Amino acid sequence: MLISPAYAQDAAGGGLALITQLAPLLLIFAVFYFLLIRPQQKKQKEHRELLSKLKRGDRVLTAGGILGKVTQVKDGVDEIEVEIAPNVRVSVLRQTIGDVLKPVGANDAGAKT
């Protein structure tokens, strides 16, 4: 035979090569976790707490952009009653409440420095 068989050489540092291949993937996952996943979970937790603390008289903003005042909150039910105009009350799902608005105090409205 004129052609001798060629054998593949072993990669030097087999364990080190595996680490260098996995390191970028682990780094990307860590960045995604700290920049995307963790803040989103924190925001969801705060929103759940906000919804659980709803009470009568709170001014709320729904996901549809409607401002109203909570007139009735039923325990164990996902619906709350919101007054959006005088004598106009609608039932909305608790999850559609986007934010609870803080009342503006009399001193805060005119104070510009």
TrEMBL record:
<feature type="transmembrane region" description="Helical">
    <location>
        <begin position="12"/>
        <end position="36"/>
    </location>
</feature>
<comment type="similarity">
    <text>Belongs to the YajC family.</text>
</comment>
<keyword id="KW-1003">Cell membrane</keyword>
<protein>
    <recommendedName>
        <fullName>Sec translocon accessory complex subunit YajC</fullName>
    </recommendedName>
</protein>
<comment type="subunit">
    <text>Part of the SecDF-YidC-YajC translocase complex. The SecDF-YidC-YajC translocase forms a supercomplex with SecYEG, called the holo-translocon (HTL).</text>
</comment>
<keyword id="KW-1133">Transmembrane helix</keyword>
<comment type="function">
    <text>The SecYEG-SecDF-YajC-YidC holo-translocon (HTL) protein secretase/insertase is a supercomplex required for protein secretion, insertion of proteins into membranes, and assembly of membrane protein complexes. While the SecYEG complex is essential for assembly of a number of proteins and complexes, the SecDF-YajC-YidC subcomplex facilitates these functions.</text>
</comment>
<dbReference type="GO" id="GO:0015031">
    <property type="term" value="P:protein transport"/>
</dbReference>
<keyword id="KW-0812">Transmembrane</keyword>
<keyword id="KW-0813">Transport</keyword>
<dbReference type="InterPro" id="IPR003849">
    <property type="entry name" value="Preprotein_translocase_YajC"/>
</dbReference>
<keyword id="KW-0472">Membrane</keyword>
<dbReference type="GO" id="GO:0005886">
    <property type="term" value="C:plasma membrane"/>
</dbReference>
<dbReference type="Pfam" id="PF02699">
    <property type="entry name" value="YajC"/>
</dbReference>
<keyword id="KW-0653">Protein transport</keyword>
<keyword id="KW-0811">Translocation</keyword>
